[in-house]
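Quick check before the chapter quiz. The format below is the same one you will see on the exam, so make sure you can read both the input and the output lines.
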Amino acid sequence: MKLNRGKINHLSNLIIKRLSESGMVEFLRESNDVRLQVVSSITEELKIDDVVDEAVRKTINSYSKKIPEGSNEWEVMYNKLYDDEMKKRRGF
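Here is the expected output.
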């Protein structure tokens, strides 16, 4: 999934605002420092998602039986391979 810098910043602001308002979290650092860490985490997750997406598409394209993208079969295969690849990368 592609998110531009502005959308990532907006999400990080919403997260920090919600955490602050909940009263369940006490920031040990300035809220902007925490927000920047949230931005970094989101960015890293999106990079992993891109790498996994590319690997899954490469695997599907390597099959001798060509599966048309967008078909039910392609979607099922993509989701299964995506989940498997994410589990491998996260050590589950």
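If your answer matched, good. The mean pLDDT is 93.
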